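Researcher: Last one for today. Full complex below.
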Amino acid sequence: MEALALGSWLEQMLERLIPPAAREAVLGDLRESYAERSDYLREILKAAPYVIASQMRRHLNLPVLMLQGAMIFWFFNGRMAALALPVLALREAYQPLARPDPRVALRGALVLSFASLLVGLATRMPLIHALLYLLLVGPLSFVLCGLRTGVIIGIDRYDTILPDAMSLAALRARHGDFLRRQRRRRWLDIAMLGIAALCWPRLIGPSLGLPLGAVFLAAALYQFNTLFRDVREAPTNFARLAQHHADEMQDDAQFRRFICWLWVAPGLCLIQTGMVSGIAPQAQIVLQAVLTVLLCFAAGAINREQCGRVREEISLLGLLRETPSIPA
Amino acid sequence: MEPLGQFEQLVLTAILALGEDAYGVTIHAKVEDLSSPRKIARGAVYATLDRMEDKGLIASWMSEPTPERGGRSRRHYRLEKPGEKALRETAKQAQRLIDTISRRLGGLAWKPSR
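Model: Here's the assembly. Have a good evening.
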C-alpha cells in the first residue's frame, strides 16, 4: 500500500516535469506507448530535457529577460542576476495554461501568512515584541485573502469570450482590435516609464535612483522599439494567423509581468531604506517585513491572474476552428 | 526559405506519409522506420515538431481524449503549404544528388529499397 502511494506520488512528480503546454500530448503519447509504469516513468525522464528546452525556446522573450536581469542586478547583485536568469527562462516554459483555481489561490494566501508568522516567531525576541509581532502579522491572513479575492474578482470582470469557431475575417478583426489596444497601451507605457526614469533619482536619491531610472528607460526604449520595428504582415492562413496572434499575446503578457514587478521595485526599495521611521526598531523591522510581503504578494497575485487569463485565451485560440466567411 | 535540416526532412516526410493519423506516437515510429537502423529519441521528435510549427511548416490540433491515453488528447499534425513546398525542394535536391552520383558512378549497382 505504501509502495503504491510512493509510486503514485513519484509518477505525479515526474509528470510535472513536462511543461504544461506539452503535458497533455506528451504524457498521453507515453501512456499509449508504454503499459509498464517503470517504462513510462523512464521515458518521461528521457523526453523531459528535449521538451523543456523546446518550451523554453518557444516562450523566451530575450529583451524582456535582459530587462528582468537588469532589475535583479540593480536590486541584489550580479551573482544573483546570473543565477536568476536561467530560472526565469525556465519559469517561462512552465507557465500555467489557465488562471489558478480560486480555492488554491486563497489557500496559498493563508499558507504565506502563517509561514510569515512562524518565521517571525522563530527569531528570538522579547515577549512584548512577540506580542506586537502577533498583533501586526495576525490579521495578515485576512488582508492577504481579501487582496487575493479582490484580484480574482477584478480579473473576472474581463472573462475571455471566444467562440469555438470563427471565420478568417472575424479572426483578422479580433487580431486588429488587439493590435490597436496594444499600440495605445505601448504609448502609455513609454510616457509613464520615461517620466518615472527621470523622477527616480530625485525621489530616492542618485545612488539607487540612477540605476533604477536606467532600467525604466530601457523598458521605455524596448516599447518604443516594438512600436516601430518592421511589422510583418499578418498571415493570411487561418491557423497561422491564430498562432501569430497567440505569439503576440504571449510576448505582451511577458512584458506586462515584468512591468508589474518594475513598478513594485521602487516601493520595495523605499521600504528597505526605512521610509517608516520614528518607531521602535523591532516594530520597524516587522512593519517593513509586512509591507514587503503585501507588495510582493499583490504583484504576484496580479501577475498570476492576468497571465492565467491570457494563457486561457491562447489555449482557446489553439482550439479555434475556421468557419467559412459570409460573402458580402 | 531556409533549407530543411536532415531531421526536419524525416519528420515532414513522416507527417506526409501518415496523413490524418500523424501524431506523436505514429510520427516517432515512422521517423524511426525511415532512419532505420538508427534509434530516434522521442523528445527530439517533439522538439522538431514544435520548431517546424513555429516556422509555419506544419499545424497542429487536439483530438478528443481517449481511455488508452489515460484520458488525454492527441496532438495531430498536418503539413501546411510552406511545408509541402519545402518537401518538394528537398525532393528536387535529393534527385539532383542521385542524378549526379549516377552519372559519375554509373557502375554502382544501386537498387531502391521498395
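The mean pLDDT of chain A is 81. Chain A touches chain B through 30 residues (CB under 8 Å).
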